[in-house]
Structure formats: structure tokens, C-alpha cells
Amino acid sequence: MSETVPSDRREMAFCRRRTRPATSGVELLRDILLFMFFVGLSYGAYMVEGTQYTVGGNSGWSLGVDYANWASSITFKTGDSLVFSYSDIHTVVQVDEADYSSCNSANAIATGTGGNSVFKLDKDQTYYFMCGVASHCAEGMKLAVTVTAASSSPSTGTVAPPTSKTPPSTINSPAPSSAVSLLPWEGSSILALVFTCLFYLISLLI
Asked: pLDDT tens across 27-42, in order?
């Protein structure tokens, strides 16, 4: 036989269901801050990654290209990368300003070979590159790029895809040029930190 539930108990259960509070404002605010925190982290990661530029655009790293004109149309930021795409008769060498002016590759800071080389621009300074083969540098195969500190806006400029299907190889360098830059600690990254603190404080109140 089924048990009959007294009417007063049914009424009390119904009242408890009706008076059960919905999601509180604090919990809603916590969820919103958590969402904004992950959005800030995602955007901050995008900013840190930087932009990859193929040197010379579709012409790549070769003779007969005006690299000074190519570089003048781009604002390079820390965290950006240069992709050198070239044939096996060329190389790419990073040098200092003096050797760049005299086309001297004997004191190379870094050297890339193999047809595709990537160099990370991780400092706000001027970088100097040249071809280390014969008189190629004297014939104009040289590049100087000035890098400024990264801001909350991504770099501008036209990015041309690499002309070779060979996977890029990082230029050998004693400097940590292949390391991922942790700049900038500004803009969205600061917002992410603020949201993290707020989320932690609110979680203590719940």
C-alpha cells in the first residue's frame, strides 16, 4: 500500500522549492570575472606571440631586392620574427653595425643556412643581416631592421607567406633569440592579473 503524505508536509516541501534562492549576484559576478580572465589570457598570449614576416615578401632573400624599402613599410615589435627564404647559393648572417656597413661576415653573431631560417626579434634594438656569400652583400643583399618595444597593439605590415615548403630552421645564435618573449606585461595581461585577484577575493567570500 502506498503511504499518504500529509498535506502540511507537501505544502512545506513546495514552499522550500519555491523559496530556494536562484544564482546569487556574487556567484554571477564570479562567473563573469572568470570568463573575462580567460579572455584576457587568450588575448595576452596572442600579443606575446608576435607577427612573422617573410623578408622581401614574395621575392624572399635574394639579389635584386630593395630590402631597405621593404623594411620601411613595417613597424617591427619585440616578439616578431623574420623568415628568410632563399636558395642554396645564399646564406643569412647576423652581424653588428660595423660589419654590416663593411659587408664583413667574418664576425657573425648568428648564421642561417638551408633555405629557410627564422630569427626572433626579442629585443628593442636594430638588427643587421647580410648574405655571407661572395659579393652579395655589396650588391644589396643586406637588411637592417629597428625593433621597438611591444605595445598593446599587434604589429602592422603586410605578411607574405614563405616561398619554400621546407620547414623553417632557427638561426643558430648564442643569444636567446629563439626564446619566446614574455613581453608585454601591459594591456590585456594586466587586466588578466586584476581579474585573477578579484576572482580570488570573491571566492573567499562565497
From this structure: 666 666 666 665 555 5
